[in-house]
């Protein structure tokens, strides 16, 4: 595309070489990486149902901001990628409507996969702004060292009920992520 201001500042163009061209500058792309703990314990006290409402809003925001999303669920025996770095779309709402909870919590395995995947993606898209969101009740038996997630992160604690283990704040601290409880 011709930059007419710069071209005319140089005088009346007489030949093609006198034209100034605009360089295309695109804003750095954003990637929102979401890991959802959908283990059986998240069914208690409508925790996962409320998290689904929050995720629906997040996906809508990602669509409006033209951000790319990557979504992984941690339930059953191993984590599963639902979307990996695609533009946010209505397909995420369909997946979200069908999301159920059950099985174990392969959350540590999910975090390992996420760390590796982000490292590879960072090499491929060096200018990309990455953000990490973990939705969990923090009900893990134990963990020693967690993988490094080298981007800004937020852990949303969905643990509810009369008996809480309260492990999510420590998990957030160990991941170097901000902490927020879903109830405020």
Features:
alpha/beta; 31% helix; VWF_A; Mg-chelatase_DI-like; 23% strand; Rossmann fold; 6 strands
Characterization of this structure:
This is Magnesium chelatase. It comes from Pseudomonas fragi. Pfam families: VWA_2. There is one protein chain. By secondary structure, the chain is an alpha/beta fold. It has one domain: von Willebrand factor, type A domain (Rossmann fold, 3-Layer(aba) Sandwich). The chain is built from 5 helices and 6 strands. Strands 3-2-1-4-5-6 form a 6-stranded mixed sheet, sandwiched between helices. Helix 2 runs antiparallel to helix 3. The relative contact order is 0.17. The mean pLDDT is 86.
SSE class: alpha/beta
- Largest sheet, strands/sense/barrel: 6 strands, mixed
Percent helix, as a range, is 25-40%
What is the level-2 CATH architecture name?
3-Layer(aba) Sandwich
**Order of adjacent strands in the largest pleated sheet:** 3-2-1-4-5-6
CATH class: Alpha Beta
The sequence of SSEs as H and E is: HEHEEHHEEHE
Query: Which residues form runs of ≥5 with pLDDT under 50?
Result: none
Q: Quickly count the helices.
A: 5
Beta-strand residue fraction: 15-25%
**What would you call the shape?**
elongated
Tally of discrete structural domains = 1
CATH topology: Rossmann fold
End-to-end gap: 49 Å
| Number of DSSP-assigned strands | 6
For CATH, the homologous superfamily is named as: von Willebrand factor, type A domain
Quick description:
By secondary structure, the chain is α/β, with parallel strands linked by helices.
Layout of secondary structure:
Blueprint: H1 4-9, E1 30-37, H2 47-64, E2 68-75, E3 78-87, H3 91-98, H4 107-124, E4 129-136, E5 153-157, H5 168-174, E6 178-181
Helix pairs in contact: 2-3
Domain VWFA: 33-138
InterPro entries: Mg-chelatase_DI-like, VWF_A, vWFA_dom_sf
Pfam families: VWA_2 (PF13519)
């Amino acid at each position: 595309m011709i930059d007419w201001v710069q071209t005319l500042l140089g005088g009346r163009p007489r030949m093609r070489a006198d034209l100034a061209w605009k360089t295309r500058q695109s804003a750095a792309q954003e990637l929102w990486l979401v890991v959802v703990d959908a283990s059986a314990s998240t069914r208690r006290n409508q925790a996962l149902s409320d998290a689904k409402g929050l995720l629906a809003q997040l996906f809508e925001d990602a669509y409006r901001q033209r951000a790319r999303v990557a979504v992984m669920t941690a339930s059953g025996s191993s984590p599963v990628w639902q979307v990996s770095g695609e533009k946010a779309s209505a397909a995420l709402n369909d997946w979200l409507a069908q999301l159920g909870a059950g099985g174990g919590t392969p959350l540590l395995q999910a975090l390992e996969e996420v760390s590796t995947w982000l490292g590879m993606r960072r090499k491929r898209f060096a200018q990309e702004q990455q953000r990490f969101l973990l939705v969990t009740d923090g009900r893990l038996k134990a963990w020693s060292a967690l993988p490094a997630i080298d981007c800004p992160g937020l852990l949303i604690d969905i643990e509810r009920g009369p008996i809480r283990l309260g492990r999510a704040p420590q998990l957030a601290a160990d991941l170097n992520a901000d902490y927020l409880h879903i109830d405020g």
